[in-house]
Design brief:
Length: 865
């Protein structure tokens, strides 16, 4: 460590221009690479080994892209509280006409027994279409037709019709305040194996979403009967406003950068003293601010460029940049500001003491640099403990964080130091160095204010530590009350009328009809009588499972069995006499089972011949046999009940798993729940490992550096308290554990560890010069504490602006970042000084010096100063 710092100091002092050019060249190369960053989304990076994600990928591979069909739901409401009337029929007809005449028209997914558009007035439409009744001419007549037709519909169709009415429905005298239309759309097939060379799946999907957005707007603006409203909803619509999201991101981070610049100007501002010109102070203030911001952006560029080198395109050590990795720049801004302020403050202090520019920078690098390299190594190792995580996204996050932290250190110690030396050597030769103003830095408001906090360590060290520990216990109690929550709609800007529609679907229609849970049955020969009958029994078991849509007595489940039933039902429009003969030979019954020992392979072969397109979506052929089938269930669990639904469906498919076949339920909501659970468990283990690793490194460092290994424990203890405080505040602020709020641990380690190391290192140095621990802690609080406060308030103010965002995750990120960094500052300037003073007094009571002056001087090369 000492050799590294010494080498950097000599290089910066002797070859500043070479250092500048070298860092700029490296930045240019890595900047070119950073342009190749691909920001990915989705959950795959969080838990790719989870069987639910593996099953989802297999379903896409075996049965086609899961996005090949989309359900557009149109919520129809009436101000008078009843949509079952002639005006409601007119609204349904108008919306249907808009759909058929729009660009979505050719994409409407219609099958013989499943129309592309199904409305809550399905019984009325079917009666009219079959010529059973004339179009009704009054509301009373329409209600009579609805009630009569509902009684004559098959149970499945009647079940659909009833559930398309809101839960306040009255079927005795057909009324309901709201009704649904379901529009089945064939989305683009993303199979580029048969596409042209310039085929771009992302572009194709964006075009589809754009069409759906335009059609939704036409539906909203349609001329409907008075008092009626039609609100389209789909997840493509709700996430189709990407421009709005990107605009908000740009606005928020632009405001954050502006606020950080303003706070840096305040922190770096130099009040002119006698003999120093105001212009010189202004120039230096702006120059230091610009240097800091340039260094931060360089560090982010280095991190991204090296990340591309480590990525799949080159070395393959990490995946592309996922959502978790977007937190790394925030860490780098916090650390970059911290590193720059400490180096600049110490350099100004030494110049103000009257020594030359090269000597001042050399001393600043030797003193602050030792603390910075220790903070860098400790923090980087802490993040690298994520390498043991089973979650690739967290492993990548750990690697990129470590890379960025090291880059921040190198740039601050080389580029910033060399640039300042080049500028100030020339000013020194011309007699333009404002030494008195630079030396007065410690007299400014923040250093003075933080210096006064040392009174707690001087006069109330024991109560301060006891209160901190009690708050830690309270924080631990808060941690035990943490809940894990995450909603995909959190990433939708507010306000958004689609979210209101989504809430209505959730409350009045049990979540609506846009949710599908797939069950993959695989890993064996599924074309046997035993396997077929086990699937039939499992589907029958679904009838008692909560959150599964029922059509009469039957679960809304599409499967090979439901397809066979449709083809063998003489009342169905899909009845196939030839196939029915094959099914009869196999003993296919009303319950979906076949006779023991039946030739199911022949049955499935005939199914493929009779309905090849539908069969290929439900059964997979391989080597002349069948190795997988799909059961697609309409569910209404949403995010809150996803885990319970997955468990219930697994239990329902016990007959399949008893045959040693794999039966895995999967859906977007189930995968999200798996991701959150896996991340929660992984974060806890990685956090414990990170704290232990950081503690070991600090113990070893202080043992070698100053013969005081216990200083390592004292230094890391406030970081553990900060994490307890931060997580303990979750219930106070109504926060839950999720992908965004999980950053608390990363912030606490990434920001907290360097803060504590700065205080401990400066205290050792000041203790050599001062006669008492009280005098030393006052000096430490004024100098290093003031710099820490400037760094903390800069980052807090910059990212606190995120709390004004319309996106829930951004608001949470702003809040979590602000209060975690504030708690880290509190731990560094209030708790750690008290612990250091108590530790010092304990050594003195034993009749020994707390700090080994010779060891510390040697480690920091203070030369007796």
């Amino acid at each position: 460590m000492k050799s590294l710092i010494g080498g950097l100091a000599r290089l910066v002092i002797r070859r500043p221009l070479t250092v500048l050019i070298s860092t700029l060249v490296v930045t240019g190369v890595l900047g070119f690479l950073s342009g190749q960053v691909v920001v990915t989304d989705g959950n795959e990076g969080f838990a790719p080994d989870a069987e639910e994600l593996v099953a989802a990928e297999e379903i896409t591979t075996l049965f086609g892209d899961e996005s090949s069909s989309s359900v557009l739901q149109v919520l129809i409401s009436a101000e008078d509280g009843d949509v079952v009337d002639l005006d409601g029929l007119a609204v349904v007809d108008e919306v249907s006409a808009i759909l058929e005449q729009s660009e979505l028209g050719p994409l409407l997914l219609s099958r013989p027994d499943e129309p592309a558009v199904i409305s809550y007035l399905l019984p009325v439409h079917q009666s009219i279409a079959m010529g059973q009744v004339e179009p009704p001419t009054s509301d009373i007549e329409l209600k009579e037709v609805y009630a009569s037709a509902l009684q004559s519909l098959p149970p499945e169709a009647a079940g659909i019709a009833q559930q398309l009415l809101s839960q306040d429905r009255d079927l005795a005298n057909p009324t309901a305040s709201k009704g649904l239309m379901l529009v089945f759309v064939s989305a683009p097939q993303f199979d580029d194996s048969t596409s042209t060379p310039d085929f771009d799946p992302a572009t194709e999907y964006e075009d589809f979403v754009e069409v759906e957005v335009e059609v939704a707007e036409r539906i909203r603006e349609a001329a409907l009967p008075a008092g009626y409203a039609a609100e389209p909803f789909s997840f493509e619509l709700i996430f189709g406003s990407g421009d709005e999201f990107e605009a908000e991101v740009g606005r928020l981070f632009g405001m954050a950068a502006g606020i950080i610049v303003l706070i840096l100007l305040f922190v770096y501002w130099m009040r002119p003293r006698s003999g120093d010109s105001r212009a010189a102070g202004v120039r230096r203030t702006f120059a230091d601010m610009l240097l800091t911001m340039a260094a931060i952006f360089m560090a982010i560029t280095w991190m991204q460029g090296i990340g591309v080198l480590f990525g799949p395109r080159y070395l393959g050590w990490i995946d592309d940049f996922g959502p978790m990795n977007q937190i790394v720049p925030i860490l780098l801004i916090g650390l970059g500001v911290d590193y720059a302020i400490h180096l600049t403050t110490r350099y100004r202090e030494e110049v103000g003491n009257g020594i030359t520019v090269p000597e001042s920078m050399q001393k600043a690098i030797h003193t602050v640099g030792i603390a910075l390299v220790l903070a860098t190594v400790t923090t980087a190792v802490g993040f690298l403990t994520n390498l043991v995580s089973p979650i690739p996204a967290l492993r990548d996050f750990g690697i990129l964080s470590a890379v960025g932290i090291v880059a921040s250190f190198l740039i601050m110690m080389s580029f910033v130091a060399a640039f300042r030396v080049l500028l100030d050597r020339r000013a020194e030769r011309g007699g333009r160095i404002p030494r008195e103003s630079m030396g007065a830095t410690r007299e400014r408001m923040l250093p003075t204010l933080i210096g006064r906090t040392a009174v707690l360590a001087e006069r109330a060290a024991v109560p301060t530590v006891v209160i901190a520990l009690l708050l830690g216990v309270a924080g631990f109690f808060g941690v035990t009350k943490l809940t894990t929550e995450f909603s995909i709609t959190d990433f939708v800007p507010r306000p958004n009328p689609l979210l209101e529609t989504f809430d209505t679907l959730t409350s009045d229609f049990a979540g609506g009809f846009g949710e599908t849970t797939d069950v993959l049955v695989a890993d064996g020969d599924i074309a046997t009588a035993e396997a077929h009958n086990a699937v039939a029994a499992s589907i029958a078991n679904l009838g008692g499972v909560p959150n599964i849509v029922m059509y009469g007595e039957f679960p809304a489940a599409e499967s090979p069995i439901s397809l066979i039933a449709a083809l063998t039902d003489p009342a169905s429009a899909r009845y196939d006499e030839s196939f029915s003969a094959v099914a009869e030979a196999a003993g296919f019954g009303r319950d979906g089972t076949v006779a023991p020992g039946a030739d199911v392979t022949a049955l499935y072969d005939a199914l493929y011949a009779a309905a090849p397109e539908d069969a290929s979506r439900l059964i997979h052929q391989a080597n002349g046999g069948y190795d997988a089938l799909l059961v697609s269930i309409t569910t209404q669990a949403g995010e809150p009940a996803a885990a319970a639904l997955a468990s219930d469906v697994r239990e329902a498919f016990t007959p399949v798993s008893d045959l040693e076949l794999r039966a895995v339920p999967t859906s977007d909501f189930i995968i999200t729940d798996v991701v959150i659970s896996a991340m929660s468990d992984s974060q806890l283990s990685s956090l414990v490992i990170a704290v232990i690793a950081a503690a070991l490194l600090l113990v070893i460092n202080f043992w070698v550096e100053s013969r005081r290994p216990f200083l390592g424990i004292i230094t890391i203890a406030p970081v553990a308290l900060v994490m307890l405080w931060a997580f303990g505040l979750f219930p106070v602020f109504g926060l839950a554990f999720g992908p965004v709020t999980a950053t608390v641990s990363a912030l606490a380690i990434g920001i907290g560890v360097p803060y504590m190391i700065h205080i401990t290192h400066r205290y050792q140095e000041d203790r050599i010069r001062c006669d008492s621990p009280e005098e030393a802690i006052r000096s430490t609080a004024s100098n290093t504490g003031g710099a820490l406060a400037g760094s903390a308030f800069t980052t807090i103010a910059g990212f606190g602006i995120l709390m004004t965002a319309s996106l829930v995750p951004f608001r949470q990120l702003g809040l979590v970042t602000a209060y975690t960094i504030l708690l880290a500052l509190v731990g560094a300037v209030l708790v750690l000084p008290s612990m250091l003073v108590l530790w010092d007094r304990w050594h003195r009571r034993r009749g020994e010096a707390a700090v080994d002056a010779e060891a510390v001087r040697h480690a920091m090369e203070l030369s007796g100063s």
